[in-house]
Amino acid sequence: MPRQMHLNLFFHSRGHHEASWRHPGTSPFALTDIRYYQDLARRAEAAHFDSIFLADQLALGGDAAQAARTWLEPITVLAAVAVATQRIGLIATASTTYTEPFNLARQFASIDHISNGRAAWNIVTSWLATAASNFGGSGQVSHADRYARGEEFMTVVKTLWDSWAADAVIDDRGGGRYADADRIRPIRHRGDFYQVEGPLNIPRCPQGRPVLVQAGSSDTGRRFAARHAEAVFTAHMAKEGAQEFYADLKRLAVAEGRDPSQVLILPGLSPMIAGTEAEAQRLVRETNDLTDPEVGRKRLSNRFGGHDFSHLPLDRPLSAEDFPDPTTVQAARSRTEVIINLVRRDKLTLRQLLGYLAGARGHYVTAGTPEQIADLMQDWFNDGAADGFNVMPPLLPLQFDVFAQEVVPILQRRGLFRTEYAGTMLREHYGLDWPASQYDRPALAQASD
Ligand SMILES: Cc1cc2nc3c(=O)[nH]c(=O)nc-3n(C[C@H](O)[C@H](O)[C@H](O)COP(=O)(O)O)c2cc1C
Fold it and tell me: Which of 11, 36, 113, 432 has the fewest Cβ atoms surrounding its Cβ within 10 A?
C-alpha cells in the first residue's frame, strides 16, 4: 500500500483561534460539558482520523478572564470519550515533572484497557513556570533537570508496563487460579529521582504499552523524542523549518538504533477553509476582530517564562533585541526560537505578531479552499516535512466539519488517507510495532530480577 498520512484532531477550547470561544458559530456546549468532547471525538472517528489529543497545563494562567480552554482533566476525559467511541485513538497529556511514574503507568494502562487498545500519552516536562507553584512551591525545575528526571521517569514507566507478561492472567474459576505469579515481576528500580518496587497493580494492557507521543523541540527535547516517542507533535510557521525538524528527528532516531518509520512526525496545521479564498480570508478577519491584544501580550509573556512585554508599543516593528535570549528561557525554549525567527524574517510589529499567534499559538496557520489545503498537506507529506498532521481547526466544530467533509475526500481520492479503519487499536492506525516486553527477552528478565 502506498504511504498514507496520519491525522490527529487536537481539541482546544471552542477552536484553536484565541477568540474562537466568542465566535457565534462555535459549539454551544459549556467547556466543562463532557458531551462536547464526546461529540468532537465521534465526528473525528466518522472521518476516520487516527486519534484525538488533549493538551494540559498545571496552572490556571493569568488570562482566565478572557480565555476559554479545554478545562477538564485530560486522562479523565479520555475515559469518558473511550466509552463513547470504538476506533479512534485517544491521546492525553501528563507531566513527568509533577506526577509519580507509578500513578501515571497505572492511569494510562487503565485507559488502554477501557478503550481496548487506543490509549496514548503525550509526555511533557511542563514548561509553564507557574505550574511549579502548585507543586511544593520550591520553584521551577530547570529545563535540563526536567529532561533528566523525565528520562528516568520513562525507564520506570516502561518497566512497570512490562512487569506483567501478556499471559499472566489465567482466570481459571474451576482450578482456582487467577494469575500465574511467575509471570508478574517486581521492577526494583533504584534511581536518582525514583525508588519503585513494582510490579504494576494492573495486568498488561492491550497495546503492550500505550503509544508514546512527545512534543519537545529543543536539542534536548529532540533527543528525548528520538529515544522514546512513537509520534511527535511539532509547531512550525514555514515548510522549511518543518523539513529541517523532520530530517533531524529521523536522523536522531536512527542514531538511537530505531527504525525511523516508527517515529511519526505530525506538525500542527490550523486551516480556515471556505469555498473561495476570499471567503476564507473574510472568516479569518471576522475571527481576528474578536481578539484582544492585551490578552495576547500576557500569553506572550507566559511563553517567555514571565518576561515583561508591557512597555512594547503595539505598532513599532520588533527586533530580536525586544526578546530575552532563548537559551536563558526555562519555559518552552523551541517555541521562543520559532517566534524570534518569525520576527527577524517578517519584521512584524507586536500587533501583527500577536495577530499571528492568536491563530494557533505559533503553529502553521493558513486560509484557503479545500483543494488548496489538500495541496499543501500533500506537498508537506511528499516533501519530507510530515508523516501526517495535527489538525487544529480555528473554530470547533465548525471548521473541523468543513475539513472532514471537504478536505478528507480529496485526500482519499488521491490515495493519501484511509477510507476505513483497518484495525481497532491506535498502534494499528499509526502502523507501529508492538513493544517487546522483558518476558520476550529472557536475558533482560534475569538482569532486572
Ligand atoms: C502540539 C503540541 C502540544 C503540546 N502540548 C503541551 C501540553 O499539553 N502541555 C505542556 O506542558 N506542553 C505542551 N507542549 C510543549 C512541549 O511538550 C514542550 O514542552 C515544548 O515544545 C518545549 O520543549 P522544549 O523545551 O524541548 O523546546 C506541546 C507542544 C506541541 C508542539
Answer: 113
Predicted model pTM? 0.92
Do the Cβ atoms of 12 and 21 come closer than 8 Å?
no
Q: Which residues contact 298 (CB under 8 A, 6 or more apart)?
A: 62, 63
Please give the number of the atom of ligand 1 that sits closest to the Cα of 55: 8
- For ligand 1, the distance from its centroid to the CA atom of residue 60, given in whole angstroms, is 17
Q: What is the CA radius of gyration of the chain?
A: 22
Paired residues of 33 in beta bridges:
none
Taking the centre of ligand 1 as the mean of its atom positions, its distance from the CA of residue 380, in whole angstroms, is 22
Strand partners, 267: 234
The reply to whether ligand 1 has any atom less than 6 angstroms from the CB of 132 is no
Cα 88 from Cα 42, distance rounded (Å):
8
Identify which of 7, 217, 249 to mutate to test ligand 1's pocket (most ligand atoms within 8 A of the CB): 217
Q: Is the CB of 70 under 6 A from ligand 1?
A: no
100: its cell numbers: 509519580
What does the alpha-carbon distance between residue 185 and residue 425 come to, in Å, rounded to a whole number? 26
Task: Compute, in angstroms, the gap from residue 409 CA to the centroid of ligand 1.
Answer: 31
Read off the pLDDT of residues 349-372 as tens digits, 9 standing for 90 and up: 998 899 888 888 889 999 999 999
pLDDT in tens, 209-239: 999 999 978 899 999 999 999 999 999 989 9
The set of cell numbers assigned to 57 is 497545563
What does DSSP assign to residue 404? Answer: I
- Identify the CA nearest to 91 among candidates 189, 211, 202, 2: 211
